[in-house]
Amino acid sequence: MYNEPIFLEPVLQERIWGGNKLHTEFGYETPYSHTGEAWAISAHPNGPSKIKNGPLKGHTLQGAWEEHEVLFNRSEAAGETYPLLVKILDANQNLSVQVHPDDTYAMEKEGVPYGKTECWYVLDAEPGAEIVFGHHARTHEELRQTMANGEWDTLLKRVPVTAGDFVYVPSGTIHAIGAGIMILETQQSSDITYRVYDYDRTDEDGNARKLHLEQAAEVTNVPHEDPKNESIQETIEDLTARKLVEESYFTVYHWDLRGQAVIERKSDFLQVSVIKGEATIQTDDQTFSIEKGTHFIIPHTIKQFSLEGDAEMIVSHP
């Protein structure tokens, strides 16, 4: 039986808007001067995580999903593709304004299994930092006309954020992360993005990045409605577990550990990202050290585990 956590190696991604905080704040070896994303728990072909320990060391997460169903309690209904993707993003500059399709559109138009619903836990935000979240158009005709005219200040809704905020972003929501913000993102395992506006930026060769206004207009929810989301909190010994969202694709929690706690795994498996502090995790007779920037999966073969230390974690499952 596989009785240890599955630790994963993040995949670093270059982005025009990235900076160096993934190195300075999380200690990752960043290969680019503009490193925007760490794909921390990923089976996506554009950035597959490799397993760092145990019998599957060196294997990809997707390989484990396909070949070792027992680790995830994977049924045939779950499909051949690992369902979720966890990232850390460093927005040194504004990200492009964008929107993602739902599953039906993604399958019909792009030939991939998942659209993209996502959510963000704000790790850090400079004073005055804002996100784009939603729009003011009342009809699709108004949306298309305002986009065509480039009336972005009229169209886009901007919302201030601070560290500790949580934002749920269903597919069809126009959105963007603003400069000076770091987030941990939990999302469907999809890399489909329809870019709406990119601040007229150009790459190092002077080329503007491609926009996808027609696809964006087709998939955007009109009118925009802020999703309703209720946070629920429970205490397990010295652990405070706050449920941030529970919806059809994922459930996400913030765990605040201030001592010791024994956890009973109730879902098929758990994804865990340490965002602050350090601790130990014990499974059976093995103890592992974890710290800020550690990412791992508690497989289905582990029914119970204990935590000890002073740390915060974002935890999720399908």
TrEMBL record:
EC class name: isomerase
Needed co-factor(s): Zn(2+)
UniProt GO MF annotations: mannose-6-phosphate isomerase activity
Domain of life per record: Bacteria
UniProt keyword annotations, A-Z: Isomerase, Metal-binding, Zinc
Coiled coil: none
EC assignment: 5.3.1.8
Family: Belongs to the mannose-6-phosphate isomerase type 1 family.
Protein name: Mannose-6-phosphate isomerase
Source organism of this protein record: Oceanobacillus locisalsi
